[in-house]
## 1
Amino acid sequence: MKPPALGWQLVLAFVLSLLLLVGLIGWLQNVHILTANGMYKSIQAEPWIADPATARLDASNYLYFPLYGALCRLLDGLGIERGVPWKQFAYLNAFWASLCIVFVYAFVHRATQSARAAVLASVFHFGCGFFLLLAVISEDIMPGYALVFGAMALAGLWFDRPTYARVAIVAAVFTLGWLMEWRLIFPTLPALLLALALSDGPASRRVMHIFMLLAAILAVSGVVQLLWDGHNGAVGLHDMLWTGKGVASGWAGVSWDKAWMMLSGIGNYFLVMGGFVDPLAARRAAFPLTVSVLLQAAIFVAAATILWPRRADRRLRAIAIVFLGTLAAGQALNFYAQPQDPQMQINVMPWLTVAWGLLAAALLAERGRPRALLFLTVLSLAPLVWNVAQLARWRGGDQAAVAALAAIEKRLPPDSTVFLYWGFEPITMWQYALWSRTWDWDGAATVAPAPSAEPKFKWIAVDAGAIRHPDWTAEQHARSLKGDIDQALDRGYRVAVSDVWGWSVAELAGQLGGLGAAARAPAIHKMLHDNYQARPVFSDPAVGTYYELQRR
């Protein structure tokens, strides 16, 4: 019996992936699991949906907002979640994730000549924790990741014997990917350069291939820059290549706390285990996270052992350089930034799927196929089963948050209340999106005396000083917070503080550790509890307890 053509296999991989992801989005009814960033991105995209001619370009997401604005208009025309871009974004991400599964299937099929190995690798990648998560929520990384993965796959298959045309194609796909999300350029570019430097052929040709890669990246970037020249927010080529996103902020820097966050990021990438946002939570979930990391290490060791006799294979060497090079460069950069963040790990970790696909192909070739196939199928499905069960814990979160928002508005009228938050509570995103698009005060806001309906959402964030002012001392941070709280009280507002009020110094330090500001915790905690007292006034299962803050 003639096997089905590869084209039909790819179509089937796409359709099945998309149907499963769309069904999962509808079942979960929560497109903000673990991160609310997608809501902010959807708000930023609203001008691109309503009037692209006047919408402003974002240097760090140069092509993302124009693309998703156009796709949201398409979904509006089809009647799919019309006028609700934060939901539409999740369905668009499912589309791009399904396209990425096609790339996985095609890559493994081409690299191993095994349809079974391609199926197993695709199922495995589909079920990896952060990939599955980002495929069903509204975060903004998936289209850029899909294209960058496609470029990595092509490089792995082609850079054993590169040609100028192949190098140019890889550069073009890669550039379109990082123009969706600027930081994607950094982990993979060094790996692509190294793969070309170590490819087959004389040194002069390898050097020319490297120049071709860089020239094609600049050329594609230049064409995009010229196409958008004169548009609102358009920047020059230099500013496209270096936007400085995340630099000189509280996210940047190196500390031992980042090691715990790295454990969280790598562990949860494969199996969702917990300990997501801060080093304190990661320490509490250290055991299950370590189990996940050890399982990944076992896959690496098994693949390396079984493939070692083929180490002279030039294609296998190119694949290893591209994917393991991206891993090394990416984790080094992540340690400086946000190693716990799903979107910081997803493009760094696809080596795991590649290792699994190559290992599966080798095992199927060496051992009795029916038994080995059954065993590998179970193992390939296991991450999907586990991670769907974990994501189910957040099922219905969007409806619960909207209901909680109505309860808050009733019990704590926004015209007479200023909210004091840690800053990362998910409910702040809903208040920002549905009440008023106003940021926290951060020592710079002046409000009218209470009651005042404008702005509807008036709030103070403890973490603001750590994020925006990494050069502050602990005393400066505490003094700024006290000034904001006193301004609210002096103008007649109730100050409603979230569960951050009940945190100990150690817990506050653990939370601030993710922003490189753990040393500020004692001063901030002392300022709050020496100057103010609080009593509980409202509690909701979706958001926790609110306390009313008063001067001592």
## 2
Amino acid sequence: MCGIAGFAGRSDRSVLEAMTAALAHRGPDGEGFFLSPQGEVGLGHRRLSVVDTGGGGQPMFNEDGKVVIVFNGEIYNHLDLRRELVASGHVFRTDHSDTEVLIHGWEQWREGLLSRVDGMFAFALWDSTRGELVLARDRFGEKPLFYAEEGSSLIFGSELAALLPAMASPQVDRLSLKKFFAYGYFPGESSFYRGVRKLRAGHYVVYRPGSGAPIQPRAYYSFALRPDEGLADGPEEPLVEELAHLFSQSVRRRLMSDVPIGILLSGGVDSSAILAAASREIPGAGLQTFTIGFEEKSFDESAHAARVARHFGSDHHQLMLDMDKAQALTPSVLSRMSEPLADPSLIPTYLLSKFSRERVTVALSGDGGDELFAGYDPMAALGPAGLYDALVPGPAHRLVRSLVDALPVSHNNMSLDFKLKRAMKGLKRGGALRLPTWMGPLQRDEIADLFAEPVSDEELYADAIEVWNASPHLSPEERALEFFTRIYLPDDILMKTDQASMMVSLETRAVFLDKDLVEFCCRLPYRLKYRNGTRKYLLKKALSRLVPEDVLARKKKGFGIPAAKWLKEWTRYPLDVECPGIDADGVLRYWRDHRAMAQDHRLFLWSWIAVQETLQGRA
């Protein structure tokens, strides 16, 4: 796990060094630089040594020095690819570096390499013979990659902060900021600053400096469900066995490491599944598990995690935290983000990563399990919401909504009034708009008021509409899973995990995003993922012989903090840095209503603080 940065076009070493230095936290074990003889390309690298710690330094070259790469991530099937490349005549200089496999793989297969790789990655490869710079990102977006055209140069980096030293006067992008308040994160290509784009998950770019050709990202992979309905009508046991095999295989692949490795354990289904599979590969006491607990019982899952750890005999580590201490850390954590993220679970994710990093360098996580197996709360609400839309006319809906809005405000974790009021916002906003409206900080009309200008659904929700319209043959529930996997997973969940863990130089690996496991899940009918109110149906069947029954039956809690309560007691109203076009008086009204418990504005106010702290961190 590392950080990469660079340029193609024209720049100099001092700028490259400044860009790379902005990523020092991602790679504390070393740095390296490459400048082409003509100065048209520069590559920078910060290294966190995980695989081939003695021989995997970067930038790395092929035998004749014509191809050079900087790479962030892990390639889990690199040994298989290496054997295939050696058989084709390629000569390797390292013992078992996965980075070198990418160099020879690109020489052998070019873009065909990307579909062969099972891993998480963002890399930049310069082929001086062809005069091409290649940027690529893994199929689910575990590793971020930002890029922009600055003058006559293309600049890029693992975090948006790495681009800023090469930008003359970065300005907040107004439309992207509106999207941020609509989703709670920056969807698709959008980013915080004007002119900066994220390379989408499953995409790559081939750029020729000086050609004048426009940058055109190309897709090599796009997540798409292809349910085989016949699987739901046949016996379940073969599917259970196949799922158990593929899951164990994924865990085994992700245990590859030359440094200490652990498991982030919540005591829920996904992390318990990882521990169950890992315990078959490594004797119990050889596995280290990590849990953050909170003194406030409604947010604490540490007892469940401890029970699962005892069941499998892992070397378990637990840290109990006072919410006041966690709250005190919030401004500093948010200010270190590459760009704002309105997900309060960033805070416990950071704390868990920091605690784990005291003993290990790599940790396995359960990211992706909810997307593949229908684990999110909204999945249970989609069916009733569709019936409501069909049966309740507009005037009756407005009456129901007014009654729900009149309910007393509670700032408790996922309180009933909060859930009902959020649900009302998404009803009568069906199709592509329902999920982002349910989950986002503000609705379209609220964003228009905040910016004092009209805004359309097509502008705000273009990414969600694109995903929804791509699969008209699927059910609403299956299209919802595609939304979660193609937008919410890379742009919120994986961005949060990457940013929080890399702040403390911890590499995290998402077991559920294994290439073979995902392909299996894409074939499963929805009835094998969500059945009669049971989420993750087939996964729980596969785990029933390994994991205690009460763990599988326990209601999903989530990894949360009392954001609404914190915001009610916040001692200042952050209006320190001007945001383009936003009505400051409108922001203050949200603060006053929330503190007076007239309305629950936790999602917007957390978003606003994230924006302010990010800007403060760049000041």
